[in-house]
Amino acid sequence: MAASTTNGFKVIGTRPIRHDGVDKVTGRAKYGADYAFPGMLHGKVLRSPHAHANIKSIKIDKALALPGVKAIVTADDLPKLPDKMEAAGEQAINLNHLSMNILARGKALYDGHAIAAVAATSSHIADEALRLIEVEYEPLAPVMTVEDGMKPGATILLPTLRNKEDGPDKETNVAAHLQFKRGDVAEGFKQADYVVEREFKTAMVHQGYIEPHNAIGIYNADGHATIYCSTQGSFVVRSLSAAVLGISEGKIKVVPAEIGGGFGGKTTVYLEPLAVLLSQKTGHPVKMTMTRAEVLRATGPTSGSTIRCKMGATKDGKLVAAQCWLAYEAGGFPGSPVGAGAMTILAPYNIPNILVDAYDVVVNRPKTAAYRAPGASNAAMASETVLDELAEKCGIDPLDIRLINGSHEGTPQTVGPPFKRIGLIETIEAIKNGEHYKSRLTGPNRGRGVASGFWFNVGLQSSATINIHTDGTVSLVIGSVDIGGTRAAQAMIAAEVLGVDVNDVRPTIADTDSIGHTDVTGGSRTCFATGWAVYEAAQDCIRQLKERAAKLWEKKPDEVVFENGMLSPAQPGGDLKPMSIKQIAPRLARTGGPIVGRATINARAVGPAFATICVDVEVDPDTGKTQILRATIAQDVGKAIHPAYVEGQMQGGTAQGIGWALNEEYFYDDRGILRNTGLLDYRMPTCLDLPPIETLIVEVPTPGHPLGIRGVGEVSIVPPPAAVANAIYHAVGVRMTELPMSPSRLLKAILKKRAAGETQAAAAD
Amino acid sequence: MKLEGAGLTRVRPFVLMATVVIPALLRKLTNGQDRVTASGRNLGQVVADLERQFPGLREHLVEDDELKPSVAVSIDGEMGMAGVLEPVRENSEIFFIPAIGGG
After folding, report:
1. Structural domain harbouring B75
2. Which chain B residue lies closest to A456 (C-alpha atoms)?
3. Residue B9 lies in a domain
4. Nearby residues of A526 by Cβ (< 8 Å), 6 or more positions away
5. Domain residues for A431?
6. What ipTM was estimated for this complex?
7. Is B24 on the interface with A (CB under 8 A)?
8. pLDDT digits (tens, 9 = 90+) for A404-426
9. Residue A329's closest CA among A275, A357, A383, A367?
């Protein structure tokens, strides 16, 4: 339960029923696949059966001749785009690679890579047409791991790929090398009494959103197009689709449907440009929906990785040096989150000497996309388990070693700038002082583990419009797709500032023609940045309301005050009675017309997030199965607007982190073909696998934000894998260095330890 | 900037000096220095001065007269949102860092 407070707020900090709740529980809310239009065709995608192959030819004649087939497109139907990084929306992206991911050009780079797309009068005919397309492949050796991709003489995925270090003449699979350095690590390690160094591997995992990708493209004869789709950002769909298709952004309108989960995976495009292209070819609306297998094979999971982490501490637990090496799978095109991994791996701690090297490596797997604090969970798995081992060597409580070294205001970040006010220490203390950590854990094969995690959060651009109606109710229009209750939170901010009932605020998420630019619902930015825009739009309303009251009272606007939802003369006295918004609203027409408050923001004072988690596990030593007994997460949220939805984010991230820790894994065979393409085999935790996840809300306001809001959506996924690994160690004495810590993998480690013990015992005899 | 001195008021050109922290892999271009000073009222001018002092640095930071999409900048602890037009103050501390996105 939350420890959040209302701190004088009337609406913020309460738990109203969400505005979209009735529509969602009654099934009226429209998701992307719910839309249909007259004359609509059905689109399907032909996908590569090879992990790595040259495409020698694509013959579509037989498929086109099938009755009901209206159009087939390949990469030749898309414009060739420049092979360089461009700003597209809020993303830095290589548009050529984006285009080649949407439809393969010359080469298939992973199992499931899109080769061609069909539009037909039914999905069954479209499926049949896919079978009639003849593709001649020249299979190549797949490169499935960063080690294989980086070794000398490795098979090359992208012949044009170069990196700055190797120069313009050398083909490579290493798209980028980043390095962060402070102090002198060699000297630092000399000061250490204890040094721990381990190598970790983490599996590629998927976000696991329940709603598959979908899109409807409607291309009009006037050259304008409309896209209905499930996305975390309608504006990014607009900019990326426009770029891929060579259409002006202003000619595309994106209507965001309700979204059944995204977690970062819906911040790019796959089907959207294809639906528009097929619509352009046929003159009909075209609807495309992925199967679960397509989602797993061909959308953007997050990177598997190899990480080496070495940390040194003095006897009293003071960290003196750390050196990390990270290599992340980018997928078929560059762009893994290894940079974020490198910048987060040591962020929770003040270490004077650090050296971090990070490598982005292309491999024959799907192009990775963002996943909740991208890259940070992999990294924390390494550093947080090494720190646990150091704590043990020092004989220090694992929370205390975090308190000794924990980052606070003024601590330099890995990238250099010092932190402003942050709440890591408070999250550690919240766990340490909580009932869970103080409780005794008893019983065989049971253990308790802790870990902390960091995520940057981002700000970016948001817009908000508030319309005051003549009955005193309010319409709030925003461009942020609602994930996790953000619509309700925005309405609460408007209600708080305007002093109206939260149920008198009606929030609407607008299409790209109906609201100013708003970046994705991602990066834990929505409540922070869009909430800031809503706050400013409400302030704009108040400014105008004061002008109207001044007109009615024959005063100057600065002679009117607005407090507790009431307009009053600044100087009391006389017979002028304070007015609420409901009282002045009917008189807007006579005092100047409608009031529309508006604000746009490009937020910069971003408050980073920290979380600390405590997990109890029980391991079955005969099967290697780990059961989570109890989990408590403490997170600095700045200010909890709607505590229930904040708790939901904390619990959701924890659940995903536990799935990553114990079960989830892309499993490829020797040919690079994904073998677990359904949710029965790609095992995500269900409510039967998890205990109720307890939450401790910590509120350290973000400096500079008018409400102190700090993004809450991502950091909760960062520490769970490491905490589970630490708990497993304290349960059965084996240090797990590979994710997932599945029963088979853990059993193998237990048996290895047991065999080593028996060997030692035999030697002693 | 206006300076008062000896009864005179004069306009001083271009002397705002900021500290720029050089990314680790670019320090080979600054003779190993991790911190250098550069002048300019905005980030674009600072980068131009860096290029004057350390030829070759600009191409890693700026492309087509705009901050590269893959590069973000922190000035005095806040993320810059205005690219090369980001204002720089006297004694500002500037960090170039990789751009990141969230999920």
Report:
1. 16-98
2. B102
3. no
4. A462, A480, A483, A486, A711, A713
5. 420-453+607-765
6. 0.86
7. yes
8. 999 999 999 999 899 999 999 99
9. A367
